[in-house]
Amino acid sequence: MNAKNVIILAHSIGGVYAFQVRDKVKNLKAFVGIEPTDREIILNPPQEKAYLERNKNETISEKFIHQKIFDLFPETETKTFWQTTEKNKAHFNDQDDQHLMNAMKKDVFWFNQDKWNDSIPTIIITEKYRMSEYERSEYFNQNSESKIIPMGTFHYIQWEYPHEIADIL
Protein backbone atom coordinates (compact mmCIF):
# COMPACT_ATOMS: atom_id res chain seq x y z
CA MET A 1 0.00 0.00 0.00
CA ASN A 2 1.31 3.44 -0.93
CA ALA A 3 -0.86 5.63 1.28
CA LYS A 4 0.83 8.89 2.19
CA ASN A 5 -1.10 9.47 5.44
CA VAL A 6 -2.56 6.60 7.42
CA ILE A 7 -4.86 6.98 10.40
CA ILE A 8 -5.79 3.82 12.25
CA LEU A 9 -9.33 3.87 13.61
CA ALA A 10 -10.20 1.07 16.02
CA HIS A 11 -13.08 0.20 18.30
CA SER A 12 -12.94 -2.10 21.31
CA ILE A 13 -10.78 -5.21 20.73
CA GLY A 14 -9.69 -3.63 17.44
CA GLY A 15 -7.47 -1.38 19.57
CA VAL A 16 -5.42 -4.42 20.58
CA TYR A 17 -4.93 -5.38 16.93
CA ALA A 18 -4.07 -1.81 15.97
CA PHE A 19 -1.53 -1.63 18.78
CA GLN A 20 0.12 -4.82 17.62
CA VAL A 21 0.50 -3.69 13.99
CA ARG A 22 1.32 -0.03 14.62
CA ASP A 23 5.03 -0.41 13.87
CA LYS A 24 4.32 -2.20 10.59
CA VAL A 25 2.16 0.59 9.14
CA LYS A 26 4.07 2.95 6.89
CA ASN A 27 3.19 6.62 7.02
CA LEU A 28 1.12 6.23 10.19
CA LYS A 29 0.00 9.72 11.16
CA ALA A 30 -2.47 9.07 14.01
CA PHE A 31 -4.44 6.56 16.01
CA VAL A 32 -8.10 7.09 16.89
CA GLY A 33 -9.55 4.64 19.38
CA ILE A 34 -13.22 4.40 20.24
CA GLU A 35 -13.07 2.78 23.66
CA PRO A 36 -10.16 0.54 22.65
CA THR A 37 -9.67 -2.48 24.89
CA ASP A 38 -6.77 -1.76 27.21
CA ARG A 39 -4.73 -3.97 29.49
CA GLU A 40 -6.21 -2.57 32.68
CA ILE A 41 -9.84 -3.28 31.80
CA ILE A 42 -8.97 -6.92 31.06
CA LEU A 43 -6.29 -7.71 33.65
CA ASN A 44 -7.29 -5.47 36.55
CA PRO A 45 -10.73 -3.94 35.97
CA PRO A 46 -11.38 -0.81 38.02
CA GLN A 47 -13.81 -1.37 40.87
CA GLU A 48 -15.11 2.18 41.10
CA LYS A 49 -18.86 2.65 41.29
CA ALA A 50 -19.17 4.01 37.73
CA TYR A 51 -17.65 0.82 36.30
CA LEU A 52 -19.81 -1.47 38.38
CA GLU A 53 -22.97 0.47 37.52
CA ARG A 54 -22.12 0.49 33.81
CA ASN A 55 -21.88 -3.31 33.75
CA LYS A 56 -25.43 -3.52 35.08
CA ASN A 57 -26.75 -1.37 32.21
CA GLU A 58 -25.53 -3.44 29.25
CA THR A 59 -29.09 -4.23 28.14
CA ILE A 60 -29.69 -0.52 27.49
CA SER A 61 -26.94 -0.42 24.88
CA GLU A 62 -28.14 -3.64 23.27
CA LYS A 63 -31.64 -2.19 22.90
CA PHE A 64 -30.24 1.03 21.45
CA ILE A 65 -28.17 -0.84 18.86
CA HIS A 66 -31.09 -3.14 18.07
CA GLN A 67 -33.26 -0.10 17.29
CA LYS A 68 -30.51 1.62 15.28
CA ILE A 69 -30.06 -1.46 13.10
CA PHE A 70 -33.81 -1.64 12.51
CA ASP A 71 -33.73 2.06 11.54
CA LEU A 72 -30.82 1.66 9.12
CA PHE A 73 -31.43 -1.65 7.37
CA PRO A 74 -34.34 -3.47 5.73
CA GLU A 75 -36.39 -5.57 8.14
CA THR A 76 -35.41 -8.92 6.62
CA GLU A 77 -31.68 -8.15 6.91
CA THR A 78 -32.13 -6.89 10.45
CA LYS A 79 -34.00 -9.99 11.57
CA THR A 80 -31.35 -12.22 10.01
CA PHE A 81 -28.59 -10.23 11.71
CA TRP A 82 -30.21 -10.56 15.16
CA GLN A 83 -31.04 -14.23 14.71
CA THR A 84 -27.42 -14.92 13.76
CA THR A 85 -26.15 -12.85 16.69
CA GLU A 86 -28.35 -14.70 19.18
CA LYS A 87 -27.44 -18.07 17.69
CA ASN A 88 -23.72 -17.26 17.93
CA LYS A 89 -24.08 -15.97 21.48
CA ALA A 90 -25.71 -19.26 22.52
CA HIS A 91 -22.58 -21.17 21.44
CA PHE A 92 -20.31 -19.54 24.03
CA ASN A 93 -19.89 -20.95 27.52
CA ASP A 94 -17.48 -20.91 30.49
CA GLN A 95 -15.12 -23.30 28.73
CA ASP A 96 -14.84 -20.87 25.81
CA ASP A 97 -14.02 -18.09 28.27
CA GLN A 98 -11.28 -20.27 29.78
CA HIS A 99 -9.81 -20.98 26.32
CA LEU A 100 -9.78 -17.24 25.64
CA MET A 101 -8.00 -16.51 28.92
CA ASN A 102 -5.41 -19.22 28.20
CA ALA A 103 -4.78 -17.77 24.73
CA MET A 104 -4.40 -14.28 26.20
CA LYS A 105 -1.79 -15.52 28.67
CA LYS A 106 0.37 -16.51 25.70
CA ASP A 107 0.03 -13.09 24.01
CA VAL A 108 2.83 -10.71 25.04
CA PHE A 109 0.59 -7.64 24.49
CA TRP A 110 -1.16 -8.19 27.80
CA PHE A 111 2.02 -8.37 29.85
CA ASN A 112 4.47 -5.87 28.42
CA GLN A 113 4.54 -2.16 29.22
CA ASP A 114 4.77 -0.80 25.66
CA LYS A 115 2.86 2.36 24.86
CA TRP A 116 2.11 4.26 21.67
CA ASN A 117 5.19 6.17 20.57
CA ASP A 118 4.99 9.88 21.41
CA SER A 119 5.63 10.77 17.75
CA ILE A 120 2.13 9.53 16.81
CA PRO A 121 -0.87 11.51 18.10
CA THR A 122 -3.51 9.34 19.73
CA ILE A 123 -7.13 10.33 20.15
CA ILE A 124 -9.29 8.29 22.47
CA ILE A 125 -13.06 8.66 22.37
CA THR A 126 -14.65 7.29 25.50
CA GLU A 127 -17.38 7.62 28.04
CA LYS A 128 -16.52 10.28 30.60
CA TYR A 129 -16.12 7.87 33.53
CA ARG A 130 -13.29 6.03 31.70
CA MET A 131 -11.07 9.06 31.04
CA SER A 132 -8.62 8.34 33.90
CA GLU A 133 -8.30 4.73 32.80
CA TYR A 134 -7.28 5.84 29.32
CA GLU A 135 -4.82 8.43 30.68
CA ARG A 136 -3.02 5.47 32.30
CA SER A 137 -3.39 3.21 29.27
CA GLU A 138 -0.98 2.05 26.61
CA TYR A 139 -2.87 4.15 24.05
CA PHE A 140 -2.39 7.59 25.50
CA ASN A 141 0.97 9.32 25.10
CA GLN A 142 2.72 12.66 25.53
CA ASN A 143 2.24 13.91 21.96
CA SER A 144 0.94 17.49 22.10
CA GLU A 145 -1.92 16.55 19.76
CA SER A 146 -3.02 13.50 21.77
CA LYS A 147 -6.29 13.86 23.62
CA ILE A 148 -9.10 12.00 25.29
CA ILE A 149 -12.56 13.07 24.22
CA PRO A 150 -15.50 12.25 26.50
CA MET A 151 -18.54 11.28 24.50
CA GLY A 152 -21.44 8.88 24.63
CA THR A 153 -23.32 6.88 27.20
CA PHE A 154 -22.22 3.34 26.33
CA HIS A 155 -19.46 1.35 24.67
CA TYR A 156 -20.79 1.68 21.11
CA ILE A 157 -20.28 5.43 20.91
CA GLN A 158 -20.05 5.29 17.12
CA TRP A 159 -23.73 4.33 17.03
CA GLU A 160 -24.71 7.30 19.19
CA TYR A 161 -22.48 9.95 17.63
CA PRO A 162 -21.47 8.94 14.10
CA HIS A 163 -21.41 12.50 12.74
CA GLU A 164 -19.37 13.89 15.63
CA ILE A 165 -16.84 11.09 15.26
CA ALA A 166 -16.63 11.74 11.51
CA ASP A 167 -15.89 15.39 12.32
CA ILE A 168 -13.07 14.34 14.66
CA LEU A 169 -11.55 12.22 11.91
Query: How would you sum up the major sheet?
Result: 4 strands, parallel
SSE run: EHEHHHHHEHEHH
Mean pLDDT: 88
Q: Biggest sheet, strands in spatial order? A: 1-2-3-4
Q: What is the distance, rounded to the nearest whole angstrom, between the alpha carbons of the first and last residues?
A: 21 Å
The count of DSSP E runs of length 2 or more, i.e. the number of strands, is 4
How much helical structure, as a percent, in the residues? 40-55%
Question: How much of the residues is beta strand, in percent?
Answer: 5-15%
Which structural class fits the helix and strand makeup? Answer: alpha/beta
- The coarse overall form would be globular
Query: What count of helical segments does DSSP give?
Result: 9
- Low-confidence spans: pLDDT under 50, at least 5 residues? none
Radius of gyration: 17 Å
